[in-house]
Amino acid sequence: MVMTTDVADQGGEEAPAPRRRGRPRVRRELVEREIKENATRLFAEKGVAGTTLQDIAEATGLTRQAVYHYVANKDELFAQLVSEIAEEPAQLLHQVNAMSHLGPREKLQRMSEALAVQQMRNGDRFRLMIRSESDLPEALAASYAASRRAVLKELITVIDNGIEVGVFRSVNPRTAALGVVGMLNWIAWWHQPGDDENAVAAELADMAVRSVLSDEPPSSIPSVPRLIRSMRQELDQLDRMLGTGPDPR
Fold first, then answer.
1. pTM of the model
2. CATH classification of 78-230, choosing from 3.30.70.20, 3.40.50.1000, 3.30.70.100, 1.10.357.10?
């Protein structure tokens, strides 16, 4: 006798359909994003002090009680916005700088494009950051300052490397990096939603590269600072091998 496992053998009841676990998570992410977008707009328009959680709830189409499922309070929401917009640029630039197959010119191009696109896609948040910078709580201000230093460091590194190999002109790397940052920071104030983001980013990145690009072709001869650094490393290694290095005392 053949055993079967169809619906009739199970008393005619259909097995319940499997639950899709991804839906609640996707909905939560969508609601959180909408809350943050509305909060950013209201903070920029009315200031953080002049905006209430009730204002944010109404703009999002939720009750105040419903908003508490996603955020504890207004200050926590503001802190999240600051952290996200402050930390991401440095992370993006660090990833580009770690691409060893790219030269300094290509790295600066990609870095500038990444910063430009981020500015265009998060204009409200950047404007909010600039307007609120002087009013940030101490911890947030310190975090924001550290992120800005990290962005500057990544740009200085790639510009310095470009100067060393002769791709970029002999400029002050820090001044040049600040110039690039200053140019790109203004995007949040003039960018229009209808603009082609990729085209605008590419054009601005090209300007950033040309501002430091050398008029002469790169020389295969290492620069003097590079030669000195290489010689010092080789001498240090020789000292360690011969045991003739400086007395650690």
1. 0.68
2. 1.10.357.10
